[in-house]
UniProtKB/TrEMBL annotation:
Keywords, comma-separated and alphabetical: Coiled coil, Lipoprotein, Membrane, Palmitate, Signal, Transmembrane, Transmembrane beta strand
SUPFAM superfamilies in alphabetical order: Outer membrane efflux proteins (OEP) (SSF56954)
Organism annotation: Flavobacterium enshiense DK69
Chief location: membrane
Stated name of the protein: RND transporter
GO molecular function list: efflux transmembrane transporter activity
Length: 478
């Protein structure tokens, strides 16, 4: 019984529909939408001016610091590794794009074949009557050359969504590099200001050693005059030795901080050129935090999380499409003959064209697992995006508050240093006139030294806060 050609196509269409229906049932997983709502402002004062949009060359005006940052952006090893990650992501786009385009290749081959006499084919050839000169050559040679192609028609956009996901991951890697640039600039700047603070502390220590040494000489003279005992001399001497040991501790910290900067700029240890201006005379920049919604565009880590979220959503679509039927087309054209002389004869031409429809029907657990994994990763990406936004807002809010409080603290510590510096002179005068005990002199000198150290530390914190809020606002990468 012959089937009418019209009904044959109908049967094929019905079979395709049944395959589609059977394969399109997917697990329902609730999609989680990212919450990007942020407070309208950081403090009671709202200002749309944002210091994070300022170029790092304009934000950090110290020429030595600018030179260090510029060198680091060229030589930092970790940053250069990240640049290669971007290249890897870029190549992934090309690979994904190639998957939904037709694959076309060229094929050439040669073979020889001798059939055994006592086999079914050998027996048939031996018993078949063939006219002389028309028999098949033995051994049989085979030569062929041609083109072949295969193409999966991406009707469900499985491959296109995979390519778009690769594009978003490439953009995410670019933002990751930008975030690394921001962090690199802030790390070098903080280390540079720490180095200036250590220089200032070393200078204070040296000045204090001179003051204490002078006081020690006075105590020795008073001991000779029997006005004080050997105990006072030893106390003053111990204080001088303590301060001198502190000098070497600071020098070691200077070496380590210099080498930390050298590592960040990608070079072996060497002296770091730096500003010789009095550290306490450095003034932090006036910072404008802008409004919180600007973080969504300014901070590279937030943008990175956003692109990762977009990629994960496309992964879900691509994974869902694996439940649907796939349509493939294969084709080939070329020449084939048992004699090279006949290879390009028109009668040696051959071609083929075929299409197939395939759909998962039974044992789809692997596909379901991949789909559920893609959904879980998408939820994970949503949570990570929200967490990154929250983290960015809190960092800025903390630094805004810190800048304000450090300014007040610095003003009070400045007055404390001024008072204690005056008290050192007073205590020395009183001690010379025997109106103050030597312990009062020692304690006053110690308090003055500590207060000067605290003042330098507060100044460094002010400068670090200026750097950290610039990083928190997403500055430096543009």
């Amino acid at each position: 019984m012959r089937i009418n050609k019209k009904y044959k196509f109908q049967y094929i269409a019905i079979a395709a529909i049944l395959l589609s229906v059977a394969s399109c049932k997917t697990s329902k997983v609730a999609e989680k939408t990212a919450n990007t709502n942020v407070p309208e402002q950081y403090t009671t004062a709202q200002d749309t001016v944002n210091s994070g949009k300022i170029s790092w060359k304009d934000y950090f005006k110290d020429s030595h610091l600018q030179s260090l940052i510029e060198t680091a952006l060229k030589n930092n090893q970790e940053l250069n590794i990240t640049m290669q990650e971007i290249e890897i992501s870029k190549n992934e786009i090309k690979a994904r794009k190639g998957e939904y385009l037709p694959f076309v290749g060229v094929k050439a081959g040669a073979a020889v074949d001798k059939v055994a006499r006592y086999t079914n084919i050998g027996a048939m050839e031996a018993t078949t009557e063939i006219k002389p000169g028309k028999e098949m050559p033995e051994p049989l040679q085979d030569y062929g050359i041609g083109l072949y192609a295969n193409w999966e028609i991406d009707i469900w956009k499985k491959l296109r969504n995979a390519k778009k996901a690769a594009v978003n991951r490439y953009l995410s890697s670019v933002e990751g590099k930008n975030f690394m640039v921001t962090n690199l600039i802030s790390e070098i700047s903080n280390s540079y200001y720490e180095l200036l603070a250590l220089d200032s502390q070393l200078q204070i220590v040296n000045q204090n050693i001179e003051i204490q040494s002078n006081a020690l000489e006075v105590v020795k003279l008073q001991k000779e005059a029997a006005r004080v005992t050997e105990l006072a001399v030893k106390k003053f001497e111990a204080e001088v030795l303590k301060t001198k040991s502190l000098q070497f501790e600071i020098e070691q910290k200077i070496v380590e901080t210099e080498n930390k900067i050298n590592f960040l700029v990608g070079r072996f240890p060497q002296h770091i050129e730096r500003n010789t201006t009095a550290f306490n005379d450095l003034l932090p920049n006036v910072v404008h935090a802008g409004i919180p919604s600007q973080l969504l565009k300014n901070r590279p880590d937030i943008r990175q999380a956003e692109f990762e979220l977009a990629a994960s959503k496309l992964d879900v679509k691509s994974a869902r499409a694996r439940f649907y039927p796939t349509i493939g087309i294969t084709a080939g054209i070329g020449y084939q003959a048992f004699n090279p002389g006949y290879l390009f004869n028109p009668e040696s031409l051959l071609y083929s064209l075929a299409g197939d429809l395939m759909a998962p029907l039974i044992n789809r657990n692997a596909i379901k697992a991949s789909y559920n994994t893609a959904n879980a990763k998408q939820v994970q990406a949503v949570i990570n995006y929200e967490e990154t936004i929250l983290k960015g807002y809190i960092e800025v809010a903390n630094q805004v508050s810190k800048i304000s409080n450090l300014e007040k603290s610095y003003n009070l510590r400045s007055k404390q240093v001024e008072a204690l510096t005056t008290s050192v002179s007073i205590s020395n005068e009183l001690f010379r006139s025997a109106r103050a005990d030597y312990m009062e002199v020692l304690l006053t000198q110690r308090d003055a030294l500590e207060s000067k150290f605290d003042l330098v530390e507060t100044k460094m914190q002010q400068l670090n806060a200026m750097v950290n809020i610039y990083r928190a606002l997403g500055g430096g990468w543009e």
